[in-house]
Design the sequence.
């Protein structure tokens, strides 16, 4: 991808910076995201960028949220391809689509996947090849919590935690909704519903990690699809 500076529409610099950072994350994961490089590609000066982002961690947070939205869109498309002839079958197919869509996104977009759920790095940790120069900053910004968008930087059970919780990541919300539909359709006993989202997410995320970093890395697509199908089928069997 060309790194030449691109013009942006006046008043839309924030979007331009996020788009440049999305391209960097897609190619190299979270370690490849640099506010300085995004600024250079957008063709603006660092002070202009710092009016929109306090630093690299703040930019990574915005990028992660964008990726989560795009991931959920692809998962919905996968869910629409799986149909059933009864309410029970449709509910199970929606749950199957959530799991298969999650794994497929990880395989198709490894850089985005690794950026989506692991939160921004520490504010003072430079990106690969980036040297942070304090002189370019207009001044220190507020601290950015390193817990990231998935948990919102709030310790569960802490005072005010419930009020401070941000919206759930869209892919996780899709999973919760699919499981609730399974309960309503009578294919998942209500007493087995609590916590089922974490069991399901652990399984599909583990599968994705095996494909990206484990013994399935470099495996043929057909093999990966077979494993993904088996994992999701076993999830559905296990939670019932």
Sequence:
């Amino acid at each position: 991808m060309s790194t030449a500076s691109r013009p942006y529409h006046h008043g839309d610099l924030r979007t331009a910076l996020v788009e440049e950072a999305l391209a960097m994350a897609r190619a190299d994961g979270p370690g490849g995201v640099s506010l300085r490089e995004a600024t250079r590609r957008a063709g603006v000066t660092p002070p202009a960028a710092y009016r929109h982002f306090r630093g690299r961690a703040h930019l990574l947070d915005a990028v992660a949220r964008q990726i989560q939205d795009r991931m959920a869109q692809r998962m919905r498309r996968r869910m629409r391809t799986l149909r059933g002839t009864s309410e029970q079958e449709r509910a199970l197919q929606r749950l199957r689509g959530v799991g298969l869509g999650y794994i497929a996104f990880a395989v198709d977009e490894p850089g985005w996947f690794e950026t989506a759920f692991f939160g921004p790095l520490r504010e003072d940790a430079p990106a690969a090849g980036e040297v942070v120069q304090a002189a370019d900053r207009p001044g220190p910004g507020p601290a950015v919590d390193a817990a990231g968008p998935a948990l919102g930087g709030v310790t569960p059970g802490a005072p005010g935690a419930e009020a401070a919780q941000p919206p759930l990541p869209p892919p996780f919300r899709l999973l919760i909704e699919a499981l609730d539909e399974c309960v309503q359709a009578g294919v998942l006993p209500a007493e087995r519903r609590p916590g089922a989202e974490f069991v399901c997410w652990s399984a599909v995320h583990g599968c994705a990690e095996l494909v990206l970093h484990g013994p399935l890395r470099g495996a043929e697509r057909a093999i990966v699809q077979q494993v993904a199908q088996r994992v999701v089928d076993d999830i559905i069997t296990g939670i019932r």
